[in-house]
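Figure caption, in words: inputs first, then the predicted bound structure.
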Amino acid sequence: MANLSLQHIEKIYDGGVQAVWDFNLDVEDGELIVLVGPSGCGKSTTLRMVAGLEDISSGQLIIDGKDCTRLPPKDRDISMVFQNYALYGHMTIYENMAFSLTLRKEKKDIIHRKVMAAAEILDLKSQLNKKPKQLSGGQRQRVAMGRAIVRNPKVFLFDEPLSNLDAKLRGSMRREIMLLHKKLNATMMYVTHDQTEALTLADRIVCMSMGHVQQIGKPIELYEHPANTFVATFIGLPPMNMFDGKIEGGKFVSELFEYPLTADQAEKLKEYEGKDVILGARPENIVREGTIPFVVTNNENLGMNTLVHGKIDGKKIVVCKFAEWCNYKFGDEIKLGFDPERMHFFDKETTQAII
Ligand code: ADP
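Bound structure (adenosine-5'-diphosphate present):
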């Protein structure tokens, strides 16, 4: 296995589109990094530059201490698993998994040992004589992973591997990838637009927007301490509620409500007196012991908790998540407040987090 270092990596496509700006990341041996962000933010381009499928316009890619920036893909010792499994329909599962080793002219007994070991890890032993079309989507995705595993690469790359699967299968495949990562103790980079996949899978998340890295950190760091409004609203579902306002005399003042700051918040926000800020509150950090009038529009029971949608002052849509089964009706009024320990404040101008 290996460590990876991406240093000031940039990508400018022919025609001048800059897809990635100054990407910096050190990946430790055995780490699972998830690149997450909306469509078009540059995740796949970054992954493909690591694989060698796209040229790196500037910057350096170091794998295990070796400069691989200009190395062709086959010399990088990297395996990539794609969204469309790209299996060979006329070959059996065994032959599909053995294919890259056969190309490399490995000895038959070595190929057999590696294919059987991968089939064991992926629970595919009973499927080896079948053709891809006889397998389910989840099994085909596992074969695609098997093809990567038999090569015993330094680094595994995954490009949205689960996005062709239905929601239930995505969940179970996600857990399989987590187990696979544990079993192989492999260095992995994984691209997804799905924040749930990022939170559940990653050792560390790289959150991107418009070609720029917004934040790198453990899932809990991005969740509890988002660096800016982009990360705050992208990570977490339903997204964080955001309120525009100003800091005035120890209060957060918006068109919708006034909210007294705690002493600690007032201290941290004292340079923002009179300035525009954004108050952020996750749905689960809104409480019902407050003073802000909120009128319910929808009550969605999820079992363990309830999503309550509604409006403040007839216009601002807010989503709350209460940790019990609720039975609110359309038009019910609740007085909302915020858990003071879990409020976020952002600089309106720079969008960067203050608290
Ligand atoms: P993501 O994986 O986050 O959806 P991509 O890395 O695929 O994003 O794309 C990032 C940006 O680069 C987008 O604006 C996309 O249109 C552009 N792009 C991707 N591939 C090419 C290409 N081959 N030529 C020109 N522009 C491209």
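DSSP finds nine helices and 19 strands in the chain.
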